[in-house]
Amino acid sequence: MSGAKAEIEIIERNCKGCSICVEFCPTKVLAMDAFVVKVENADACIACMQCELRCPDFAIKVHKL
Amino acid sequence: MAYDYEKHIRPGKLPHIWCPGCGHGIIMKGMIRAFEACGLEKNNTAIISGIGCASRMTGYMDYNTLHTAHGRAAAFATGVKMAKPEMDVIVVGGDGDGTAIGGNHFIHACRRNIDMTYVIMNNSIYGMTGGQFSPCTPTGALASTTVYGNPDPTFDIAKLAIGAGATFVARGTAFHAAQIEKLVAEGIRHKGLAVIEILDDCPTTYGRRNKFRSVIDMMKRLKEIAVPVAAAAKMTPEQLEGKVLTGVLHKEERPEYTEQYAQVISRAKGA
User: Fold this and answer.
1) Residue A60: what pLDDT?
2) Does the N-terminal peptide bond of residue B228 adopt cis geometry, omega within 30 degrees of 0?
3) Do the beta carbons of residue B118 and residue B197 sit within 8 Å?
4) Does domain A6-64 have CATH number 3.30.70.20?
5) Tens digit of pLDDT for each residue in B145-198?
6) Is A48 touching B (CB cutoff 8 A)?
7) CA of A8, closest CA in chain B: separation in Å?
């Protein structure tokens, strides 16, 4: 059973790979995949929205479940 | 639901030109949320900028926008507000644009207390033109034009604005993303000139020269130096060494310029 509180959508076209979202995610849901962010541990998401708030590139959308 | 930023941005404008990790995008998102929270209407809102990385924001925002001459954003904005006092006027720009080249216009907008919201993105450097030092570059820091260290003292934008007469002055950082929205919204609702300084990072032209190994280092620094005003009141001067106060720093009520000027017009008409 999935414990994820939200579904994270990555808009790869907009992502510049700054990794701010990866660093400041409190539950380490995100990781870098070369130059673009990817969702690595979806189940750990607590829907805190920090990645969406801090993404400078409009590349992350957090859809609460 | 994820926040719908796209309806405030001109179609086809993303990805934007700002460098990876530049805080301008975080600030633009905070401003968009503030606009929505304040119920600003696109047709009744004007966003005006000068020249610089931060000033590129007017190209992205789907509002009435003016991208003007370097440092002259406050002057053009004053013109818009005088011609159409019913409009919500937002000025955006960087530290170099606002306090060096546009320093004159900035202080006089503050003095007049004209009802506008001025968001200054302070990244401590002239980013777009190649990393020259600005009045907000820290003393001793390296820039392309201060290769042996900047000998100049640094402008405190908030103190400058308060001294010049702005009636709402606040400071936030690009790291504290949720606070940006609150400060800008409070500034928009304030009647008179609201100055919101947002401390920002420039990894490309400032960070690389000043021993920040990454964007993350710059963001962590913003997190560490920021102290909310309420918390600072309980701290000693030694504890506050090297810190920067954030939150609403100054708020007062004073006659607003377009209203004063309307009275001048009616006196001139003999009413």
Assistant:
1) 97
2) no
3) no
4) yes
5) 999 999 999 999 999 999 999 999 999 999 999 999 999 999 999 999 999 999
6) no
7) 9
Across the A/B interface, how many CB contacts are shorter than 8 Å? 66
Q: Are B123 and B157 spatial neighbours (Cβ–Cβ below 8 Å)?
A: no
The whole-angstrom distance between B54's CA and the closest CA on chain A is 13
The identity of residue A65, as a single letter, is L
Considering chain A, what percentage of its residues have pLDDT values greater than 70?
97
**pLDDT score, position A1:** 47
Each residue's pLDDT tens digit, B222-240: 999 999 999 999 999 999 9
* Residues 6 or more apart whose Cβ sits within 8 Å of residue B127: B22, B52, B53, B94, B202, B204, B205, B206
Res B136 pLDDT > 70: yes
Q: Domain-by-domain residue ranges, chain A? A: 6-64
The pTM score is 0.96
Q: Which of B15, B22, B26 sits opposite A14 (nearest CB)?
A: B15
The ipTM is 0.95
Architecture of the structural domain at B21-268: 3-Layer(aba) Sandwich (3.40)
Give how far B30 is from chain A: nearest CA, Å. Answer: 8
User: CA-nearest residue of chain A to B174?
Assistant: A54
